[in-house]
Amino acid sequence: MADTFQLEIVTPEKQVVKDVAAEEAQIPGLDGYLGILPGHAPLITELKVGEITYRAGGATHTLAVAWGFAEVLPDKVTILAETCERPADIDVPRAEKAKSRAEERLKSNNPEIDYTRAEDALQRAETRIKVASGK
After folding, report:
1. Distance (Å, rounded) from C-alpha 85 to C-alpha 122?
2. Contact 127, 69 (CB under 8 A)
């Protein structure tokens, strides 16, 4: 069995990760995080908002991702994400403002507020802040 698998992460705007030889990865599946190792059984899963972490060349990398799909094969993982950001690309002040707006909406008693959308926005902002801070 191989010690690595090929990892690719693509958004509609760009290819975030290309042909990386990863030793392991964790991705936010719709029903929880999935740990991926070389030789993993094939599967396709929907992604939710969360962190993608992967180890390549002994270094661990973390990305903020929001929605999409992942195809896992024994020797390759392909992630098609709506958004995916490296820590250095995250605008932390913007994420903090988005978090504040989402929290205000969730506290409001306005019947016109889409609470599901506000919860998603809050989770995405918190994930972006966490990834950018390296925690």
Report:
1. 16
2. no
Element spanning 95, H or E: helix 92-107
Q: What is the CA radius of gyration of the chain?
A: 16
The answer for residues whose C-beta is within 8 angstroms of residue 9's C-beta and 6 or more apart is: 15, 16, 17, 52, 63, 65, 79, 81, 84
Report whether 39 contacts 6 (CB < 8 A).
Answer: no
Q: What is the DSSP letter of 117?
A: H
Nearest to 9 by CA among 59, 74, 54, 58: 54
Cross-strand pairs, 47: 29, 68
pLDDT in tens, the chain (135 residues): 579 999 999 999 999 999 899 999 999 998 999 999 999 999 999 999 999 999 998 899 999 999 999 999 999 999 999 999 999 999 999 999 999 999 998 888 788 888 888 898 999 999 999 999 886
CB distance 87 to 62 below 8 Å: yes
**What residues pair up with 61 in beta bridges, in sequence order?**
54
